[in-house]
Amino acid sequence: MHSPTHFLRNVNDTQTCGHLYMEAELKSVFLLFVCLTAIGCIAVSARHSVRLARRDSAVVPQVIHVDWSPPKTDIDPEYVSAAQILLGNGLGDPRGGRFARVDMPGDPGSFPALTTGSYGWISSDGRRLTCLDGIDVVMRGHSYPADLDRTISLLMAPTSKRSWFGPGSQIGPATPGVLLVLGRADLAGRVYKRMTQERSGQLTFEQLRDTITQGCELVAVDALANRRDEEGEGASAALVRSLSVQQKQPQKTQRFIVDSRDVHIKRAIALHSDLLRRVERPKREPVDLAAIHRLDKPARIAALIDALDTVDARQVMVPGGPEFGQDPICLALIAEGGDAVPAIMDVLENDERYCRSIASRGSIGSASPCTVKMAAQTILIRIWPSSVQAYYSGTGADVPKLRDLWNKFKGLSEPERWLQGLADDKSDYRNWLNAAQHLTGPADDVRSLSSGLGIRNPNRPVSGESLRASHGSEIVQLMIKRIDEMSHARTNSTMDLFEAASAMQMGHCLVKWSPRDALPSLQVACKQALDTAAFYVKDSDIRSTIAGSFGVAIADRILLGDTTTADDFGQILLFVEPEPWFPGDRLFVPLWTMPLDRRVLAKGEEYMKRWGDTMASSDVNEALKAGGAITVEFTSSPLMAFRPFREMLVRGLKNATRSGTAKVVQLGGSGKYLQYRNDSGGMGNWTIPADESAKCRVGQEVTIEVGDQIAMNLANGALKQVPHYLPIWPEGKRKQALEALCTWLLDDRVDWLSVVKSSPFYHPDLE
Asked: What's this model's pTM, rounded to 2 decimal places?
């Protein structure tokens, strides 16, 4: 088991969720979050007792002072003083406990679940465990006697894989402090000396305090997510006490530090208050939705609002967030429709509760509890999609605007509300585009501000179809007007690039709504986009701003019979240097959509030759190694239907430049993988097919080349029919497999569009 300091979820800390922000990689920033509250010297009879004070109507645990005289030691006095101050204020007290190895069972859905092999001191009553990293947790597993000296020596043993402390290790910056409290100055000195050698410097007060606060937060969040509210209340109380310890900072940074730490402690107090509320007024969970559904509508909505703090939406994709739209309570509120909107807006304005959901970005970092407001925002968008135009910020300041919009538009249909947004001259280009995308998107499609381009020729009516008879011409004229305004926008900043891209995306919406009216506006949008790109090309990334929208606009113009597209397409390609990892699916849409333009295809073929020359040149091999040569996104994209691209892949497959190493690893119960490490620092995992897994020996290692990386990206992509390939095969079999890949890529008998459409990630937007 990893100790609770390593229950590492990830923060999605936006204004939308008033939750804690803490990440292991950002410890140097986290030291800024210390509160001004002076150290209170409050005598207590037991180390876990907490005195409570009221501050801003929230319950605030006050700082605890525990009498303890440090043993004689050579450890830096600042560190010893920090341990003395933090004892009882987050730093655990091992005195009176028995040292043991503990196997703690994980809770269903815990992220990550507790496993086995943690070390710490079990309290005399058997209820708590003080871990080696200084954090207290509730004791819930089986224990086995262990020898402290032998364990410390074992955990400090250096390995060739990683440092002996840090993420993934039980020993951390607080371990010497715990050992000092125990009275083992000898062991504390050994650990501290090794740790400062590893870190090339003394451990500071901030580093120790940050370790403690991070651990307390993660325990509190894990407990909140898994309905262990009493444990969470204790950990969050320790978090607040740790943050309330004052430490003098340099005067020149004092104001910034004060502002930052004040924000953080308010969030910690909010989490503690929420957990304390749950302890004092526990609810029956899960909520009885069947009983709620039998209530009349007002009582039903009120009961569902009250139950929002039990929402337990899970996150299924990283990056991403919890799927609130799939939670039964959220779905029940969505089903109430417009009648629930006033209550949802009250939540957005006033509700400070948390729910049981956790946000994660997937890397080693920290956990972030989600607020009820986050769930409410999802519910509101599902009931009233056009409300996103109000730009709800999460602070409640925008709720009056939401109420005004609702009172004004609640009698309208949702397409009529989007039309009002498109017609609003006081709005901005993002809202105009969002409105157009909703009006011209599939009728059953729920889109947000970050929606894609939309489907050009859907097989079902668009959302705004009901307005065609009464407002069809008005919508055409509004789109033409907005395209012209966005195309000619000049802010004297790189925002012009984004607005130019939005103008072309608006043109795509006009193609879907009224193709006969779209071509002149598309031509103007493309011309202005090229002028904008030429102005900013030296200072900005054209490929990630304009390129994708430009490619779709060229395809739209070809569809509308424009025979002047080739020069424009060639010009945008000159602004986008061929690099292994740039995002380019939409840029190349004209190369596979129907109808095709021969001159445009020739421009694409020239570009593929440039790209292939770049891959083969010796001066960019370092970049090729870092980027994996050709990414999975490209080898799973419709670009595979363009023969010159496949020919370029064949050139890359024959590139024998060393790029790194790969080794067979076993990742839990999920099977065997090839873990590759590029010489330039990049790393990742390739899946080993099930029929090959048994033949692969864990630990087997091989040198990989650029061609291997392209082959493995093909084999690990989403396309079916790709010939198998593994770089750990014997050399003869490996060469045969490469030849088979090359033969397959150059086989014109293959229906390549059917191949790329077999990908589960294929989207009709790219047709």
From this structure: 0.73
